[in-house]
Amino acid sequence: MNTQISDSEFGNFQRFIFEAAGITLSPSKKALVCGRLSKRIRARKMASYTEYFALLKSNQEPVEVQTAIDLLTTNETYFFREPKHFDWLRQAASQHAGPSPFRVWSAASSSGEEAYSIAMVLAECRGEQAFEVVGTDISTRMLAKARTGHYPEQRARQIPAHYLKQFCLKGQREQAGTLLVARELRQKARFVQANLNDKLPDLGSFHVIFLRNVMIYFNGDTKRQVVARVLSLLKPGGHLYIGHSESLHGISTAAVQVAPSVYRKP
Q1: What is the rounded distance in angstroms from the CA atom of residue 253 to the CA atom of residue 34?
Q2: Do 251 and 224 meet the contact criterion of CB atoms below 8 Å apart?
Q3: What burial class does residue 83 get, using C-beta atoms within 10 Å of its C-beta: 0-12 exposed, 13-18 middle, 19+ buried?
Q4: Residues designated catalytic
């Protein structure tokens, strides 16, 4: 097959991922689309991007459609990214009283590092008090990885030393160079597939929601719809954390900014 993708073929996949996930692919992503899909097209023994797109649009292979979505969604994440949010989380979790679990949603959890970072903080500051972490992502491939809690050791550089010691197991022998999140912490994190651009599954309501570095992939209308959908699951008085390069200005008035990238639902 010709590994170069034409402008019209790229346009097809721009529309595909926008319709599937609300993600807007800029022209600068053309090389990314080419690189991520070409191997899959060769694996399917197809002659062109056009032939592969026709298969996706035929609705005959929903598993292949999910595979294409997985390939076209960006999954950049690491442990304790934007650490000030975890300071806010500690404060919120420590102040929560009553018998109900303190619930946190990692709304674009990718391969799970954010959800497990949340779980480490909650395990420390909640003690014996109940808490729950829910991680969602559109990519089934990333969710499967998240459930394992198994990562290359170099991904652990941002994890505080005492958390590493308490909540992570260092790989030995054939697992050398990797770390495994301890089972008792993995059991506190539940991973569910969800498309933020569509009706959400029944997740319950949350005291804190992480929606970080997600809106940058959406246009204005999609941002407004996604934020409204997400905020509907935030408890009154709860906090929403977004990426430091993001803002709810012009997107939603349903939450009030209390610090850079931190919003509170009245």
Answers
A1: 39
A2: yes
A3: exposed
A4: 36, 137
Q: Going from the N-terminus, what domains does the chain have, and what CATH number goes with each?
A: 7-72 (1.10.155.10), 84-264 (3.40.50.150)
Q: Model confidence over 67-121: pLDDT tens digits?
A: 898 888 866 788 999 999 999 999 999 999 878 999 999 999 999 999 999 999 9
First to last CA, the chain: 56
What predicted TM-score, i.e. pTM, was given to this entire model? Answer: 0.89
236-246 pLDDT, tens digit each: 999 999 999 99
Q: Select from 147, 91, 94, 159 the least CA-distant residue to 120.
A: 159
Q: Which residue has the tokens 């089934």?
A: 140
The residue among 87, 80, 74 whose CA lies nearest residue 36 is: 74
Give the pLDDT confidence of 127-177 residue by residue, as tens digits.
889 999 999 999 999 999 999 999 998 888 899 999 999 999 988 888 888
Pairing of strands 234-242, 189-193: unpaired
Cα angle 217, 46, 25 (rounded to 5 degrees) comes to 10
